[in-house]
Amino acid sequence: MGINMLSSITQLQDRILRDRAFFNGLLDDLSINVTEMFRDPEFYKSLREKIIPKLRTYAYFKIWQAGCSTGEEVYSIAILLKEEGLLDRCQVYATDFNRKVLEIAKEGVYQKSEIEQFERNYELSGGKYKLSDYYKSRYGSVIFNRELSSKIVFADHNLVTDKVFADVNLILCRNVLIYFEKSLQENVIGLFYDSLVPSGILCLGTKESIKFSRYEHLFDVVDEKQKIYKKKIM
Amino acid sequence: MYKAIVMGASYGGLEALKIILPQFPAGFPVPVIVVLHIGDHDNEIFLGYMNELCPLQVKEAEGNEPIRKGFIYFAPPNYHLLIEADFTFSLTTDEKHNYSRPSIDVLFESAAWAYTRNLIGVVLTGANSDGALGLKTIKDYGGMTMIQSPCSALSPAMPRAALKIALPEFRLKLDRIAEKLIEIVNSDR
């Protein structure tokens, strides 16, 4: 509020209601955008072992990273696909409702200071080479190879208000649902269900689950601990 | 009337909690909610072990879960644990606070907002200063505050920071903490 020279909540409310650009800026500021590459290495290990072989059976497949934030996780997926020789066979959609973070994601430029953690995660996740094979360092930043983002479309999509936009084979949405209350979680899981092809895979965060949701019986559990589910063939 | 106890521990916390938590009897009328800094590792084995030791049921706190008496809840590793106004848990992956996720301050502050004066906060052994500001918030909202006496702590820095910033009502040796908490909670019913 200080930045915008507003002295009261009432003034803030006034700007929110009348000024669309201000509203969008506030929305961006209120969203949470903390993430890292290969966060939860065990998850990526499981993905590599249990899901990659399934994707390999498709001539062409689509992946949706929902709530991609600043892009660390979608670059992680691209690296994994590259190592498995599948990057050329796929289309990745990386979406977020926050346009500021989408711009950062598109750039694929991250702080050098974070890389150490990313490297550690990459190794623990069963990475085949070195993370540094995929980026160049420059002035305290690292930039990921263009090849990785060549298959990624970054797009504005709001999980709460927007609808199905493609049939996909794999959805990754990790640590997004924890911020939603139960009924909203239910709606979003429904959106994922509708977006997945039969036998499509849904990956949630370690502390998220479709348990107790009305969609529970419509999925098979692939990995209970890593929260990987497969849509049943009806 | 006290409705919950929140507890924070870091270095040396495992040993301290092993002494405190088993002392709460079955039927203890308030939930106990704990942040223990243990890095990013899975704490399943540790929780199973604590469950064996404790008359109360020990479990990891889950998002949207209603907080109930009879339970000792632990924050999951690598997530902040918060308490909502409707006395349910929420988890976040926000930035680390005091180099920690979960952070004791984050739990304590949100607990103070939800429970106001019906809350007891306890800071145990640790090598940083997490929990000090949170304990002060609990005090500011009228709750009861307690620390493990720094001289009895494996690592005195954390209770010492809490002592300095929050000026807690109680400063107790490790083996007196559970006893005192039970006394406070029972005398209040």
Summarize the structure.
The complex is a heterodimer of chains A (234) and B (189). In chain A, helix 1 crosses helix 2 (20-30). Chain A contains eight helices and ten strands.
Any descriptors?
heterodimer; A: 234 residues; alpha/beta; Rossmann fold; seven-stranded mixed sheet; three-stranded antiparallel sheet; 8 helices; B: 189 residues; seven-stranded parallel sheet; two-stranded antiparallel ribbon
Count the domains of chain A. Answer: 2
CATH T-level fold name of the largest domain in chain A: Rossmann fold
Number of helices of chain B: 6
Number of strands of chain A: 10
The rounded Rg of chain A comes to: 19 Å
What is the helix fraction of residues of chain B, given as a range? 25-40%
- The number of E-state strands of chain B comes to 9
Topology of helices and strands:
The complex is a heterodimer of chains A (234) and B (189).
Chain A: H1 9-18, H2 20-30, H3 41-56, E1 61-66, H4 72-83, E2 90-96, H5 99-107, E3 109-111, H6 112-124, E4 135-138, E5 141-144, H7 146-149, E6 152-156, E7 168-173, H8 182-195, E8 196-204, E9 219-223, E10 228-231
Parallel strand pairs in A: 1-2, 1-7, 2-6, 7-8
Antiparallel strand pairs in A: 3-5, 4-5, 8-10, 9-10
Helix pairs in contact in A: 1-2
Chain B: E1 4-9, H1 13-20, E2 32-36, H2 44-53, E3 57-60, E4 71-74, E5 80-83, E6 89-92, H3 104-115, E7 119-123, H4 132-140, E8 144-148, H5 157-166, E9 170-172, H6 174-187
Parallel strand pairs in B: 1-2, 1-7, 2-4, 3-4, 7-8, 8-9
Antiparallel strand pairs in B: 5-6
